Amino acid sequence: MFVKKQDLFKLVIKHSLTGRIRLNCRALRYLNEFNEEILRDLLDTKIIKKASINNITKNILINYDSNMIDQDDLMKIVTEVLSSYSLYAYKEERKEEASNIIVREREEDVKDIAKRLAINVSLIGYSLATKKNEISATDPIYKRFLSVPAIGAVYLTKSLFNDGIGGLLKTKKPNADTLTISSILASILTGKGTSALTIILLSDIAEFMTSYTMKKTRESIKHMMDLNEDYVWKQEENGSVRRILVDDVKVGYKIVVHTGEKICVDGIVINGEAIVDQSAVTGEYMPDIKKVGSEVFSGTLVKNGNIIVETQRAGDNTVVSRIINLVEDAAYNKAKIQDYADKFSNYLIPFNFVLAGATYIATKSMTRALNMMIIDYSCGIKLSTATAFSAAINTAVRNGVLIKGGNYIEALAEADTLILDKTGTLTQGKPEVLDMVTVDDVSCKELIAIAATAEETSSHPMANAILSKARMQGIEVPQHGEIITHVAKGVETNIEEDIVRVGNRLFLQENDIDVDVLNDEVRDLKKKGQSIIYVAKNNKLLGIIGIQDKMRENMKKSLNNIRYQGVDEILLLTGDLKEQAKIVAKKMGIDGYKAELLPEDKAKTILKLQSKNSKVIMVGDGINDAPALAYSNVGISLGGSCTDAAIETADITIQSDDPMTLPAIMNLSKKTMSVVKQNFGLVIGINSLGLVFSAAGVLPVFWGAVLHNSSTIFVVSNSIRLLFTNLENIRK
């Protein structure tokens, strides 16, 4: 259906002589601002004598010393120079692609269509009961418009006149509404007012089903923020509580939420404990226990308990409100196949007019010519994609997955490469103390107590793991002095006269502390994939603590499922140490890994894969992975812990922490694309059959309208099946 696009940075030889070559590269189209820099970089090689760029033709002409380099090596140099501008070129290409997407057409309210259907059915019933309203084709033209069916048909198509005639005048091109109006007017002119009503009736049934699908999607979204609360309880500074309007809540307000009430703000629990149902936001149907320090979201329900929440976001700034805005905008982010269908259907509309004229000239039959306008592909082809994508987005929203447009459903179905971040994606993002090794007569409790002393004020994940271990064992942190932080090394403090140091190997060695005594134990813990924290008092090593971030439950099962769905390559890109990345990659059965990467390094790796025509999915936490999420074909954020950042950066946000949601959404995307292809087959098959029968004079106008609109109804009905897809079954 689509021509395969050439790699953006692929070099094609257009002309070649000894010492002279003309190369074509699509990327040059977007790099006119950098021509001087590119030419300077090329000439700096000393091998290239002269070079010039034509951004319009996307060519670069190079004169070089053929005695020093051959064509293949020269092309490698040019590719390397151009690739340094890859981020900018890809960004500009995506902007251009987005600007070529055609604008979505009007969408009517379900209630308005239902009223029209009721009026139409009444008029058709009246016409069938009183045959006297049928007008002969020999009657004057004005009289043909005065019958009850004709007047009713004109009234019911008033909205079509605005879009059909208005669109024709504005764009100078007929659209689907123009074609529908023409067929209705032609029916009236031939004295078939009832046929005109039938055309409108069947068209409205298809429109009703489409609007119903869109309405269900919006209702699913709005259900997420249906607070059912007009007032909230605000705690004053003196401890008293008073009722205020939800709209009056501001950041910093302390809101009291009781059993059975919905939380109306995003914030942090500062007092109390409660069981909270977060299914509206995360898709998780198991309630979560919220304690002091826990984050809560607007739209979630307190099932049991009372809490006081300090407001961080209120009104339109809450997570749920922003979710709604993003998902409602998703309809404008069309998939390429959807855009193709819209444009292709618009190209077919003039064909119907030409076919009608040719049929009339050949057969002198107005009925056959009229059928050529009634039976068209445009409506069905457009609805083949629009309703399917809308239904899929609806199903995803109900399951706590936010898809920002049909284009990402299509891209997900076509993806062949999966890239994963480590911390918070493959792992839980919550390091735990797993092993401790002490020196001489130092106990494990003493080791943890001393380590907790130095880490007490730190917010580092490793420090949190040590402090959590101390709390679990009921260990009290000893009194200590000021804590001094040595960035990227460790921390130190004092307990009475003793100096305590906690950190990495280098930190202790810099302070003349012998750490070699536990080398064998360190090696064993590293083989298990644990990070090592050294603990020392004064100049003596007390022991080591092994900390590891646990793998997400079901993550390996999820990756196996994804591979089964056609993803050829799974890679790990992480900023962590190489040793850690290697162990995690081996445990998860990942094809390859790159470690110690900066965020921009991840983005460049993705662009390099895309330059080889790979369709890349990036799964990350939405914060430090923002560039990679932005430049991947589909950026996915997994887990509720990164909700706020994920909404802004990822194309698909999975609120659940269950990794099995990943293959479930991929399965939904493939199922959606399968439905789209089925829809295309239905539309083309049924309408082609109708055109053949109509041209042969076998099919009357009435049955032509029935056949055409039945294809549209079949398409919408087929798409609506996606509304009933159960992601829970797919996850298992």
TrEMBL record:
Reactions performed catalytically: Cd(2+)(in) + ATP + H2O = Cd(2+)(out) + ADP + phosphate + H(+)
One term under GO cellular component: plasma membrane
InterPro entries linked to this entry: ATPase_P-typ_cyto_dom_N (IPR023299), ATPase_P-typ_P_site (IPR018303), ATPase_P-typ_transduc_dom_A_sf (IPR008250), ATPase_P-type_domA (IPR059000), Cation_Transport_ATPase_IB (IPR051014), HAD-like_sf (IPR036412), HAD_sf (IPR023214), P-typ_ATPase_IB (IPR027256)
Cross-referenced PROSITE patterns: ATPASE_E1_E2
Domain P-type ATPase A: 229-328
Record's keyword annotation contains Transcription regulation: no
Membrane-related topology note: Multi-pass membrane protein
Record-level Gene Ontology MF annotations: ATP binding; ATP hydrolysis activity; metal ion binding; P-type cadmium transporter activity
Subcellular localization: Cell membrane; Membrane
Keywords from the named record: ATP-binding, Cadmium, Cell membrane, Membrane, Metal-binding, Nucleotide-binding, Translocase, Transmembrane, Transmembrane helix
Keyword Transferase in record: no
Lineage top rank: taxon: Bacteria
Pfam families: E1-E2_ATPase, HMA_2, Hydrolase
Transmembrane segments: 680-699
E.C. designation(s): 7.2.2.21
Record-stated family: Belongs to the cation transport ATPase (P-type) (TC 3.A.3) family. Type IB subfamily.
Protein name: Cd(2+)-exporting ATPase
Organism the protein comes from: Romboutsia maritimum
